[in-house]
Amino acid sequence: MSKLPQKNPPEPHSTILQQQAMLKVVSEHHPSRLNHFKRAYEGNSLRAAITAKCNECTSCDTAAIRECSGTACPLIPYRPYRPKTEGKEGCHE
Q: I want to staple 39 with a disulfide (CB 3.0 to 4.6 A). Which of 45, 52, 71, 78 is the partner?
């Protein structure tokens, strides 16, 4: 079995700068989504982290998140704004 290449984690200062830049962009263009990003960056909410990542990927387009079919994305089953019944078909089999 082959292993995925190991990546070095980014420098903490670099990560903080990237997060601050993202918060600035979100606050200017999508202020209603700002809380998702703040909670995600605090590290206390997995749901907020998933929602923030989906918003980042789609430029905060709720319809694009709902209709996302990125088959390579590991967050597809957990993405926000999807119908409540989606992804539940195999739960009781």
A: 45
